[in-house]
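Forwarding the complex inputs:
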Amino acid sequence: MTRIFVPRDAAARAVGADRVATTIVQEARRLGLAVDVVRTGSRGLFWLEPMIEVETPGGRIAFGPMTAKDVPGLFAEGLPLSAAHPLCVGRPEDIPFLKRQTRITFARCGIIDPLSLADYRAHGGYRGLERARSLGAAGTVDEVTKSGLRGRGGAGFPTGIKWKTVADTAADRKYIVCNADEGDSGTYADRMIMEGDPFLLIEGMTIAGFAVGATKGYIYIRSEYPDAIRVMERATVLAEAEGLLGAEAKFDIEIRVGAGAYVCGEETSLLESLEGKRGQVRAKPPLPAHKGLFGKPTVINNLISLATVPAILADGAKHYADLGMGRSRGTMPIQLAGNVKHGGLFEAAFGLTLGEIVDDIGGGTASGRPARAVQVGGPLGAYFPRALFDTPFDYEAFTARDGLIGHGGVVVFDDSVDMARQARFALEFCAIESCGKCTPCRIGSVRGTETMDKIIAGDRPEANLALITDLCQTLKFGSLCALGGFTPYPVMSAIKHFPEDFTRPRLAAAAE
Amino acid sequence: MLPILHDLQAVFGCVPPAAVRLVADALNLTRAEVHGVVSFYHDFREQPAGRHVLKLCRAEACQSMDGERLARAFLDRLGVEWGDTTPDGRFTVEATYCLGLCACAPSAMLDGEPIARLTQASFDEIAREVGQ
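Prediction (whole assembly, two chains):
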């Protein structure tokens, strides 16, 4: 029986992986080949999706991008499949995009059957929890602190300090909340883990619960991720059946589904939503670590932070902390997206420059035109011009250049982009998604969009740009949360680095 | 409350205004509070959508791959705007901001199934599938 791995990741399905899998089964039956099709997550080499992998004595051999039409030709001569086939990309591990990575959080993603606990264990699963139990609760918090892990949602707050605050707060109940409301455009790392390695998240949350004394966890998944919701729900049921969740494990997980509000990715708004309310931001303090979900001490972490904990525990804090630069320790799953030739997930130690990421790893634009602007960190992240491509991927380095790395999304635009339109979109998005609690965000975003419309129409651009600059100051310092507070990043970076787009005559655009 | 609202929408295709009172009574809340929650979230509708629903991503990664132009052409062809349903009630086109398929942009979701690397031909196929 030859095992053939076909991703069931939503992005692979979106480009035809299901049809490829069905056709393989049909062809194999027709030709009398003994094959077992295993559906996996994605390796994250999306320009090669659907990428199938065939087990051989020398390891797996990959073929991609496949279409259902390619299947009969590929299987015509039976097994083993010919490595001379034009779609053969060789051993996946040897593909430069994968070979150059340091996969810690994504070590298993795309390799194992996501819903097989046996597979998970065979690939090192639950070693982290075992070590945590041997270290004890306080020792586990220490280990996470020593690893230097910082919140991967974007804020970059040290995870160990957050855990210690919750551990040190006395309460009758505590909660672990996983923020899987991955709303930033250009990001999909959370989705890939949920679809490709769900037990990793379950293990990470169980470790967090053990470390701080919480017995209940919630995973808040956005409704735009139906595949991820299905896999996570199934995985929690399987884990319960084996006693890895529930009374025996002294930890329980409930899946909750969002309802299309971007702002619920903000931690306090997410907690409100979990409590069944409008997803409006809470003023801090009190911190969620002191008074979080239902007023109880709560660890609320980004999914990637929680999913990185098992590897930190399993292999030791030092192993993780030895990677990276400055105060950014360990690895970051960089997500290359948009107009890029080699779009995909690239997990690497902090410190690569933006130029290396876009030109070298990403291979430039998909359109073949010059890359002009790169938005890093989602819709609230700054646009970087080529002149800043020497910026290293590191929390502090990006802050120093008026940007942020956020959740690690990198969206590439070619030279057809109109940066005035992108600045307008940033304000419009803020207006659409504002929770309405604070005035700068609720009203400023609407007025900002109107003012940007005037600039685009060529109406007193100088005076209106001065207004936008002033408004952005108000948004930045007067908003309650990052939605209003960070919207100035894309707006001001577009104005600063691409001024020519804000003052040029608009007759051509208006005529379109 | 969100799980209840999701369940209602799964059955009725919307959260019917008549259900607001029932939910309020069951949860010991005011109708205003329930209405506040229903109206806050983009997902919940007061009227059912068309038989088929296309959620088209309008976020940055899809913009960078010409998604806006393709989307506009498709809306014009159907003669609808964002959020509208075609007059025969068969087809609703909605904006969404990111489906997490950003490395295969532009992307969309048709009746819950993801589709990506959209081209003019993909939109022709979508139109055929939903009978437009």
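Chain A is about 45% helix and 15% strand.
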